[in-house]
Structure formats: C-alpha cells, structure tokens
C-alpha cells in the first residue's frame, strides 16, 4: 500500500521566507497584507496548510511557483 504525499509537503520554506524578506515583508506584515493571521501564513509556507489566500498572494507577489508545491486544485487554476 502506498502513502499519498500531502500537498505542500515539499514546499521550500526557507526560500519562501527569503523571498518575503527580499521584498521587505515580515510574516506579520505579509499576514496583514493578505488579511489572515500570522500563524496561517506560517503554517502555509511550512506546508502544514494550503491556504488559497496565502498561496495566491505569494504567486501575485511574484514568488516562483516551483517553491510552493501547490495543491492539485490550485495547479489546475494556474493552467486556465
């Protein structure tokens, strides 16, 4: 029996943090921009959650999609 890999499990946390730092965002500032809690941003960039608001905001900010290990439902939206 194979175990299915959780979406976001291969998210590149440190690279995403560096990306935000380069743009002058702390976790708190980015959370305020997105309209979510700081813990929600942290869980999402660590791969423990897949908040569409956080992931969409990262993409819109210019974060390379390859760092995000997007869930399948968001990959399909990116194609359209």
Primary descriptors:
single chain, 80 residues, mainly alpha, 5 helices, globular
What does this 3D model show about the protein?
This protein is mainly α and 80 residues long. Helices cover 56% and strands 0% of the residues. It is globular and about 30 Å long. Helix 2 (27-34) packs across helix 3 (38-46). The chain has one domain (13-79).
Number of domains: 1
Overall average residue pLDDT:
86
Amount of beta strand: under 5%
What kind of sheet is the major sheet?
none
Helix count?
Answer: 5
The SSE string, one letter per element, is HHHHH
Helix content: 55-70%
Summarize, please.
By secondary structure, the chain is mainly alpha-helical.
SSE inventory with pairings:
Layout lengths: L12 H10 L4 H8 L3 H9 L5 H10 L10 H8 L1
